[in-house]
Design brief:
By secondary structure, the protein is of the alpha/beta class. Helices cover 39% and strands 13% of the residues. Strand 1, helix 2 and strand 2 form a beta-alpha-beta unit.
Length: 325
């Protein structure tokens, strides 16, 4: 799906697949003599909420197992974390001006999102192991992972992506509030993110935490505008009219399932003032610039290529059918 070339001739030489399960220490034990010197942990359960412990089993306990593995083998551990650990400010705590930088971890932010909390705990455990047990490790807090910059190709399971779920929700409601037009949106192409992570993985051991996400931002409304231009019917409305359209959609059969990305945090707010804690990656951007690398600018061509690919895959298809009934 992701590569035109199967690279079959490289298997067994350049590419050596090894079976393992980070939630099962025994499976990692079998890899101890494989000559592994760097472990890049991309394994994660990206579901934001779950009734059982599946999120923590993979995202936290799994990392604990990798910490033990890397300590025993001397391998460097590159943990792919998330900028989402910045969490939320509730009623001004943390203060509005506070930002999560590469030098911070806990600012008093709300972490009721189980995914963010599980990744937060993994970071805490990794940093503790680095400080007290000599673990050679780095944390990469990636951002809003989006389609490849090279060709607009996106992940197979696009429906599980929270940001795309939000865009699809606007198409289901058929409207978007003017007041949200200028909300900043950062899109980190997955191929560019991979390049940045590999560069930062080579930095000195003392450099522990990086935030490799796109330092260029666009307006959320710009994305919606291009969606409209590509044939997805979304009206711009005042807040009151938009809220009515949203509530009407929530009670219509078959639509509510597409709106979770818009309403997931309403219950958590409980009438309180809820706002995401800002994340500052100035330090990481400066490091990458000194390595002669910079993020691509998110432009209209990238957005159109990305959206057209999603449309061709039928990502917005069912919401269209629902609205036409």
């Amino acid at each position: 799906y992701y590569f035109e070339d199967s690279y079959a001739d490289l298997f067994g030489d350049r590419i050596i697949p090894l079976e393992g399960d980070i939630t099962e220490p025994a499976s990692l034990t079998r890899l101890k003599d494989a000559g592994i010197d760097t472990v890049i942990n991309c394994a994660a359960n990206v579901t934001h909420f779950a009734k059982d412990d599946s999120i923590f089993k993979i995202n936290t306990a799994g990392v604990d197992n990798l910490i033990d593995f890397c300590l025993e083998t001397g391998a460097r551990l590159i943990q792919i974390s998330t900028a989402s650990i910045a969490g939320f400010s509730v009623d001004g705590k943390p203060l509005p001006g506070e930002k999560l930088t590469e030098q911070g971890l806990y600012l008093g932010q709300n972490l009721e999102n189980q995914y963010a909390y599980s990744k937060f705990l993994a970071e805490r455990n990794l940093l503790a192991a680095s400080a007290s047990r000599g673990l050679d490790a780095k944390i990469m807090r990636v951002g809003n992972l989006m389609a490849r910059n090279s060709d607009g190709e996106f992940q197979m399971n696009a429906s599980t992506n929270s940001f795309l779920g939000r865009l699809r929700a606007y198409s289901v409601v058929g409207s978007f509030p003017y007041s949200a037009y200028l909300a900043p949106a950062r899109m980190a192409p997955i191929d560019s993110t991979a390049e940045a992570v590999l560069l930062l993985a080579k930095t000195p051991a003392a450099c522990r935490v990086f935030q490799p996400f796109n330092d260029h931002s666009i307006f959320l409304g710009d994305i919606v505008t291009i969606m409209r231009e590509e044939g997805i019917p979304i009206d711009f409305l005042e807040d009151e009219a938009y809220e009515k359209a949203l509530q009407d959609s929530l009670i219509q059969a078959g639509r509510a399932e597409y709106l979770t990305s818009l309403v997931a945090y309403q219950g958590m707010a409980g009438g309180k003032v809820l706002a995401p804690v800002a994340v500052d990656n100035h330090y990481t951007s400066q490091v990458l610039l000194r390595m002669n690398w910079r993020w691509p600018v998110t432009d209209s061509d990238y957005l159109r290529k990305f959206l057209r690919d999603l449309i061709s895959l039928g990502f917005f298809e069912k919401p269209h059918l629902l609205k036409s009934r």
